[in-house]
Specification:
35% strand, alpha+beta, Nuclear Transport Factor 2, Chain: A, 4-stranded antiparallel β-sheet
Length: 258
């Protein structure tokens, strides 16, 4: 299949706003900020053919935003060629139809949109629905451990093996890209792992495996809200690496896809 029409996302998140976004019940963005920020990036891999649902959950950090400041947040999906809008939602606009006492933070908003251009089905859609506890299963812990060990041990081959489905998915959605070529991917991972990392310890009991998409997807994070894997460079304390993992069952085993 020819890669779909390129789309990207833009988020406008002011200081003091806590935001959680999911797309089709797949966690996409979770962040609290102490400064205004506007992240953006490729988005096709989050889309499915036909109907899509974006869920926005907003809250605020107590005491950080003055009472007279309007709380805002915006999320858009745009076509790369001409910035034509595929989807957009904005707070407080989406709250206006609600009763006045229901318009403030915290708030949750679900909004649908359609993808009518040709796009692949993400790998997670082919997985069987199922149940697992938030404490995880031996298989889920094995999938986490494979990636965590590769990072801690600076094992380039094991790191690439653990993330192979994620790379394959991005190749399907974005086509030939220099950073997705085998040699470039190996070089980038080698550079990442060569950094002298001080890695936060994590015990199996620290982890939470959130169940999403009827159990087709597990989102791995920590009970205390920190990323599942978090590290700081001992060379430059301003340099960090942190990640929560998205897992799905692929070819009979839980595998990282995002």
């Amino acid at each position: 299949m020819t890669p779909p029409i390129p789309h990207y996302y833009v988020i406008l998140q002011p200081r003091g706003i806590v935001a959680r976004l999911s797309v089709n019940d797949i966690p996409f963005y979770r962040r609290a900020v102490d400064h205004n920020t506007s992240p953006s990036g490729p988005f096709n891999h989050m889309l499915i053919p036909g109907d899509n649902v974006v869920t926005v959950e907003l809250a605020e950090v107590p005491g950080m935003i003055a009472e007279n400041v309007v709380r805002t947040f915006e999320f858009r999906i745009l076509r790369e060629d001409d910035d034509d809008k595929l989807f957009g939602t904005k707070y407080p606009d989406f709250a206006l139809p609600r009763k006045e006492e229901e318009r403030g933070l915290p708030i949750r908003h679900d909004q649908r949109f359609r993808v009518d251009f040709a796009t692949p089905e993400p790998a997670w859609m082919s997985a069987e629905p199922g149940y697992f506890p938030e404490s995880g299963t031996p298989e889920l812990h094995d999938a986490f451990r494979e990636f965590n060990d590769a990072f801690r041990k600076k094992d380039v081959g094991a790191f690439l093996h653990a993330t192979r489905l994620r790379v394959a998915e991005h190749r399907r959605f974005y086509g030939a890209q220099p950073h997705l070529e085998d040699a470039r991917a190996k070089s980038d991972v080698t550079e990442l792992l060569e950094e002298p990392w001080a890695v936060d310890p994590v015990e199996p009991s620290d982890l939470v495996f959130e169940r999403h998409a009827e159990g087709r997807v597990a989102y791995v994070t920590r009970r205390d809200g920190r990323p599942a894997i978090s590290a700081k460079s001992t060379r430059d304390p301003q340099t960090g690496f942190s990640v929560n993992l998205l897992l799905t069952r692929h070819q009979g085993r839980w595998t990282i896809f995002g």
